[in-house]
Amino acid sequence: xxxxxxxxxxxxxxxxxxxxxxxxxxxxxxxxxxxxxxxxxxxxxxxxxxxxxxxxxxxxxxxxxxxxxxxxxxxxxxxxxxxxxxxxxxxxxxxxxxxxxxxxxxxxxxxxxxxxxxxxxxxxxxxxxxxxxxxxxxxxxxxxxxxxxxxxxxxxxxxxxxxxxxxxxxxxxxxxxxxxxxxxxxxxxxxxxxxxxxxxxxxxxxxxxxxxxxxxxxxxxxxxxxxxxxxxxxxxxxxxxxxxxxxxxxxxxxxxxxxxxxxxxxxxxxxxxxxxxxxxxxxxxxxxxxxxxxxxxxxxxxxxxxxxxxxxxxxxxxxxxxxxxxxxxxxxxxxxxxxxxxxxxxxxxxxxxxxxxxxxxxxxxxxx
Length: 368
What we know:
By secondary structure, the chain is mainly alpha-helical. The chain has helices at 3-29, 37-53, 55-63, 70-97, 103-130, 136-153, 159-180, 200-217, 232-257, 259-275, 282-291, 294-304, 309-318, 320-330, 336-361. Helix 3 (55-63) crosses helix 5 (103-130), helix 8 (200-217) packs antiparallel against helix 12 and helix 12 (294-304) crosses helix 13. The longest helix has 28 residues, at 70-97. The protein is globular. The mean pLDDT is 85.
């Protein structure tokens, strides 16, 4: 990667961290307000539905921007998303510091957070996926979101993290958004070769397998236990760091050794760890290993929809929701020692199938 791409990737990834931190942190802070658990459940539901399910729609819009000054339009949308997040932040701080507590304002702030978060992810995701035909930029970009959410989750347990949320994080969001104004070059379109086989049936099967793998993988969060002997906030922070390294390393390994080796490494480690989850700290290795597949799913889906990286990114994000909801509903019926290895095995087999099919119907020129 050249210096321009490296700088752009660093700025966009750090923005991802602070956007997720401000959005999730705002929701966590509102738990201190005197409202019922049911009200908070609806607030979180509204946020998650907007933040995830709007992404494919925003992706279609972003992908259809005209080529002329496309990069400047991306920057404008990133600034817009940051502005929406800052409005949500202002409403949250007003609720926390003001004497009047209004539940509608909490819902309104969650709406601003959700829309801003969805728009940022799609634009930032497209930026990362079009920097290079390699998977590393996409992996690095998504990895920083895990840190942002992890830091936000412990905000009520750490006065230091609360101070960062109130002062440092919004300042960094504004500063990083300003830095983006200086990077107005267009990313080159990726060199996708002509498809060998234009059968819609095969491409539909690839998409179905990919989205099933994404949804099934989101089940795993419900079966991951935290190690004993450390506090809850320390466990959450370690899980976030594990997810961060898993997503970042996954893209690098994919570029170095290819998809089949990555699927094998991730699958073997995940299955072995799932058998020994009762051993302290094995769960963090497990989280790291199955998160290695996130860049792979993004890479595979963008090849199915050439030059539609925004939609591809948004589709992956949206299909985390059904898996999350179904996983939560089914957790009480599943045996952890059986369910987790089966999920890991199914995910690996589906992704192997995806790449076998893609090798038959798609050629992609990789960067040297």
